Amino acid sequence: MLMLYMSLIETSEEKDKFEELYHQYRTLMFYCAKEILKDDGLAEDAVHNAFVKIIRFLDKIGDVRCNKTKRFVVIVVENCAKDIYRKRKHEMEVSWEEVEMTYQFPCKNDMDELSEVETAIMELPLNYRQIFILKYAHGYSCKEIATILNMKAGTVRQRIARGKEWLYEKLKEKGVY
Q1: For residues 32 and 73, what is the distance between their CA atoms, to the nearest angstrom?
Q2: What is d(CA 152, CA 132) in angstroms, rounded to the nearest whole number?
Q3: Interatomic CA distance for residues 103 and 117, integer angstroms
Q4: What pLDDT score was predicted for residue 97?
Q5: Which of 1, 18, 31, 57 has the fewest CB atoms within 10 Å of its CB?
């Protein structure tokens, strides 16, 4: 499968980066997808779809082994798994409400090291938190985030605005603002 992905990449530098990314995260990606889909075959499909999407954004990835890249990869595979889930939900036995997003990534290694703003961001609902991480930690544009998450750019902008309102209220309650 790796050879198939490599054929989609033009430069040898990007091929090396992708190969390292593939070997570093394929197991984690499979685990995350399986947590959502509860099926090995569907999880493999989600991982494949995620790798194809990641190839389009290879130039934006710096260090393959950093937490920023890890968060990005997990967000992409979780959304690919959700897309598969939505397409097949009438065939599945488990309802979406029962699906738990078990993998969460703080911006730093230890939750105790997080500032109050970072802690509030980690408390955002998942659909807002993913967009905030992609926008403010990774620097993706609304259009790029929309492509990564398979949604409209207007939806991304709306979630950013609502997430900011939610953060403002939380920080106000904590006395930060």
Answers
A1: 10
A2: 16
A3: 20
A4: 41
A5: 1
